[in-house]
Amino acid sequence: MIPLRFPRAAGLWRDTSLDFPVEDIELLYGALPLEAAGAMPGQRSRKAPDEDAWAAFNAVPRDLLLTPAARAGQGRAAVTVSGDCLGLWRWSGLHPDLFIQERQIFVSS
Asked: Distances from the Cα of 91 to the Cαs of 19, 64, 79, 103, in angstroms?
């Protein structure tokens, strides 16, 4: 995936420490400077991140936001990418009926 322009402001929100493995982020986005919040990798906490913290994090203007799928529809960034679609982008304001869904599988034989 080649972006049309490098995001100037990018954010990463995790609901659990297992969301968005660091290796996946680095593979897909390289050295993108991300402001990370919510649960952090390596932390063991039984308490979910505070909803007020999410609201404050989400209120900051961003070009790109990585967030769990359950929060993707709430993302206010120009482009929101959910955890299960790291290679796909979601534009707010565009209805899914405007697109054709297609799946491709690549294998070596």
From this structure: 21, 10, 5, 19
Query: Which residue is it, tokens 């039984």?
Result: 46
**Parallel/antiparallel/unpaired status of strands 79-82 and 10-14:** unpaired
Contacts of 17 (CB under 8 A, 6+ apart): 39, 40, 41, 42, 43, 44, 45
> Is residue 68 within 8 Å of 82, Cβ to Cβ?
yes
Question: Measured on CA atoms in the order 6, 11, 13, 18, is the torsion positive or negative?
Answer: positive
Q: Give the DSSP letter of residue 86.
A: T
Can you read off the two tokens belonging to residue 108?
A: 């070596």
Q: pLDDT digits over 12-53, tens only?
A: 999 998 888 888 888 877 778 889 999 987 666 666 778 999
Structure tokens at 67: 């967030």
